[in-house]
Design brief:
Layout (H helix, E strand, L loop, with lengths): L33 E3 L5 E10 L16 E10 L1 E9 L25 H25 L15 H8 L3 E2 L23 H10 L3 H4 L4 E6 H13 L15 E3 L5 E6 L8 E5 L3 E4 L10 E4 L5 E13 L6 E3 L3
Parallel strand pairs: 1-10, 5-13, 6-8
Antiparallel strand pairs: 2-3, 4-12, 6-9, 7-8, 9-13, 10-12, 11-12
Length: 321
């Protein structure tokens, strides 16, 4: 006699409570920059420059006073950013998600430790991801929810107007300007890196902790181009998961960062020239949960963030024309 099961719905095991998270890209740019803590709203980067001119020392006390000691400032502006959402736990009841609820009718109005921790971890990862993009591409005039919170380094450096423009001011070294129509390709990316190195101001050349920041898309092209050029520089066994490689023959590290991907922008700068500001670094981990009168659960996270460059004239910038 046959088993008749045709009237039953096919079974799917719903007993697993492991919630699988989607991938988030890591925020890596900040580790190559200088933190500036305790900024409530606006803090000044105090800049000092001494100008002095040599003269004959034989005149003793009658030497002429010349030169200057100049104090200037650039302002770090941080913006207050918040994240908030509300959840009704009863929404979990009709589905397998009821298994995430605490036992008892009262428990159904509260978030479990597992689900609360999962949301906390996901939110922290999202905040890091949003910072990575906004630290570079942020623009308070943008209509994008992530980008409009504070101005990023691209806007700040471009607005300074005294950065070194690698793509338009190096005709003297035989450089042909690259246009948006051509774009960054495997055939020109090595030349782009070379011209950025050559465009460095003399005072920057021997400095340590220098990086050429580029999108991970451009970094991939650069490594592939080095391999194709057969420079015997890229070891097939090297782990590039950190997206770093030393530019051959230089004291500069090329870094691929997600925040510049898709922008076709590259920047050469020293770590101590790029700043990210905040009030208290632990604020970003301070996710507060609250039970509302409606029995909904609410989380709130608030913190401050901003970017600044101390000396834009010590930044080499690449931009397609």
């Amino acid at each position: 006699m046959a088993l008749v099961v045709s009237s039953l719905t096919d079974y799917v095991n719903q007993n697993s409570l492991e919630l699988l998270k989607a991938l988030h890209y890591e925020g890596t740019s900040a580790k190559y920059m200088t933190p500036m803590a305790g900024v409530k709203k606006e803090d000044a980067l105090q800049l000092f420059a001494l100008t002095a001119y040599p003269q004959s020392g034989a005149d003793g006390c009658d030497m002429t006073a010349s030169g200057s000691a100049a104090f200037t400032q650039r302002t770090m502006v941080v913006k207050k950013i918040g994240y908030r959402d509300e959840f009704c736990m009863d929404d979990l009841l009709p589905k397998w998600t009821q298994m995430l609820l605490a036992p008892g009718a009262a428990g159904e109005d509260e978030i479990t430790v597992q689900l609360g921790n999962q949301i906390n971890d996901e939110l922290k990862a999202l905040i890091v991801e949003h910072h990575e993009v906004a630290d570079w591409q942020g623009n308070t005039a943008s209509g994008d929810a992530i980008l409009k919170q504070y101005d990023g380094l691209i806007k700040i450096i471009d607005a300074a107007s005294n950065e070194v423009l690698a793509n338009t001011t190096n005709a003297a070294i035989g450089w042909t300007t690259i246009t948006s129509a051509t774009g960054i390709t495997a055939s020109n990316v090595i030349s782009i890196i070379k011209v950025m190195v050559r465009a460095q101001p003399e005072k920057l050349k021997r400095q340590k902790d220098k990086y050429i920041f580029m999108g991970t898309d451009v970094f991939d092209l650069y490594v592939q181009a080095l391999e194709a050029a057969n420079l015997f520089y890229v070891d097939a066994t090297t782990d590039f998961s950190g997206y770093e490689i030393r530019v051959p023959g230089t004291n500069i590290i090329a870094v691929g960062v997600a925040g510049l991907s898709g922008t076709s922008r590259l920047f050469l700068a020293k770590k101590t020239n790029l700043f990210y500001g905040f009030d208290l670094i632990s604020d970003e981990d301070g996710i507060v949960w609250k039970v509302l009168e409606s029995d909904k659960m609410r989380y709130t996270a608030k913190f401050k963030r901003g970017m600044q460059v101390a000396y834009p004239d010590e930044v080499v910038s690449f931009k397609l024309t």
